[in-house]
Specification:
Distance between the termini: 81 Å
Shape: elongated
Number of helices: 11
Largest sheet: 5 strands, parallel
Number of strands: 13
Length: 326
């Protein structure tokens, strides 16, 4: 028996050495990648966990139980781009109230800062232009809010816009709204937001979670390689309808459409490109496949010569010309 076991020992040593070499190579390559990525714009993922941070006080926004935040009511502030932003009593950017009794054709707009009109005056925003160009036969309700993700856009439609009985819901979607659905706390704004996960194909809101293990927390906070992996998954998810990034956001869009069908309100989706003017193939394919009402601003007509004039030079949000283009 001893003779039979002896040849096994060299093989075990060889296998152990090979495994050690592989592990060392992976560690060295990972370390080198981390160092190299520090010379790029890639940042750590920093998803955190539900309940990790408290809300920070804000002079512009108040906490909102449904969407995370909205404007303080009846407030006029000078903010981004030196513009004045006024809110109505409901905490949205508007010069008047959103009233179900309004006899005009009512259009509710939901979206992020592009719909909100970050960096431009209220009358220059595309929702306000719709009302103006109709000679006030249309009432435009702008529920857009800076930094919203697809999840918050859906929740804004469900809890804020649709209960007021609009005749049409317009949903502005920007590609950066999609990764926002995966985080529970917005560092820039300092607010917690609802965050969901898919369980058996159903959206289930995540509740306060215990802190993850120290290794996870370290990589989440500091690893640029993990951040690069997340960016790669987003790249795949915007081009092909696969992966958790895409399936989670598709569930929000599906549920938003179901909510609209339930109350008999037609919905129009608009894809708004950021200053790179990149298309969103997975979203376009989804909209075609499901027969949704959809306008892709990268397809409506060729992008104008020197399309950068559509955007503010400082931060890439729409300029007044960009809102008119929409």
């Amino acid at each position: 028996h001893a003779a039979a076991r002896t040849p096994t020992l060299p093989r075990l040593r060889h296998a152990a050495t090979a495994i050690a070499v592989i592990c060392a190579t992976v560690i060295v390559c990972g370390f080198c990648a981390e160092v190299a990525l520090r010379f790029t714009t890639i940042r750590p993922r920093r998803w955190g966990w539900v309940g990790q941070n408290p809300n920070r006080p804000s002079s512009n926004f108040q906490p909102d139980r449904y969407t995370g935040w909205r404007l303080w009511p009846y407030r006029s502030i000078v903010w981004a781009g030196g513009k004045t932003y006024r809110s109505n009593s409901q905490g949205f950017r508007a010069d008047s109230e959103f009233a179900s009794s309004d006899p005009r054709f009512k259009i509710a707009f939901v979206g992020d800062s592009y719909t909100f009109g970050y960096g431009v005056s209220y009358q220059e925003t595309f929702p306000a232009l719709v009302e103006k160009d109709s000679n006030s036969r249309i009432a435009s309700w702008n529920f857009g809010m800076p930094a919203f993700g697809v999840d918050q856009i859906w929740l804004s439609a469900r809890h804020q816009a649709l209960p007021l009985g609009p005749q049409l819901l317009v949903v502005g979607l920007v590609d950066i709204d999609f990764p926002r659905s995966q985080v529970s706390y917005r560092l820039a704004e300092g607010f917690n937001k609802p965050v969901f996960q898919l369980e058996g194909g159903r959206l289930v809101e995540r509740t306060v979670e215990p802190p993850p293990n120290p290794v996870w927390r370290f990589f989440d906070k500091y690893s640029r390689l993990w951040g690069a992996e997340e960016i790669a998954m987003r790249w795949v998810g915007t081009r092909f309808p696969i992966g958790g990034f895409w399936s989670l956001n598709r569930a929000f869009i599906d549920t938003l459409r179901d909510d609209c069908r339930r109350v008999g309100v037609p919905v129009l989706f608009i894809y708004i490109p950021i200053d790179t003017f990149h298309p969103f193939p997975a979203l376009a394919a989804y909209m075609r496949r499901t027969g949704a009402n959809y306008i892709d601003l990268t397809e409506v007509r060729p992008s104008p010569p020197g399309s950068t004039y559509l955007y503010l030079p400082a931060d890439g949000h729409f300029s007044p010309a960009g809102h008119r283009y929409t």
